[in-house]
Input
Amino acid sequence: EVQLVESGGGLVKPGGSLRLSCAASRFTFNTYSMNWVRQAPGKGLEWVSCIGSSSNYIYYADSVKGRFTTSRDNAKNSLFLQMNSLTVDDTAVYYCARDRENSHGMDVWGQGTTVTVSS
Amino acid sequence: DIQMTQSPSTLSAFVGDRVTITCRASQSISRWLAWYQQKPGKAPKLLIYEASSLESGVPSRFSGSGSGTEFTLTISSLQPDDFATYYCQQYDSYPKTFGQGTKVEVK
Output
């Protein structure tokens, strides 16, 4: 079964950094663009970032631009999100999600990893 | 940025009811719209893409329609497994944006 598994979440102080990882399995990772989506406690979904299949493009939400960096390692079937200058507003469950072919929606999601920013 | 507005925010319905959720975009997005279902503590699940195409494995009681700025998700006969929160999402341009969600609850 196609699978995405996030890791790296945890508790961090405001101003701190964290690096999330997403391990992909059972599909040809290097042919799909990938996304990060987050959900603050009790809130809706917020798209965070998208990276092309060969890292040929990377887009960010305005709320994280300049603080977060998305990257991928196709040799290791892995996606990453480097988060710097974290604030309490970044507290959320972070999901990685695969873009469906031709980027029509996100068809495979991980289980999510929780990031808590608190002093 | 394109704003997505869903209505209603909450919907109360009985099993067997026909349910319709509306999603409006702040500018035309052609047919580049997806619908997701999310249950508490779980990741979202893709239901519909390109406004009306049913994702593989999704029951046929789910359908989508619309183009431009107005879209609908319809559940033809609500089942117990369908009580959840539904989100629309545009992918016409970056940043991709979601609606605020519609919670479908038991009446």
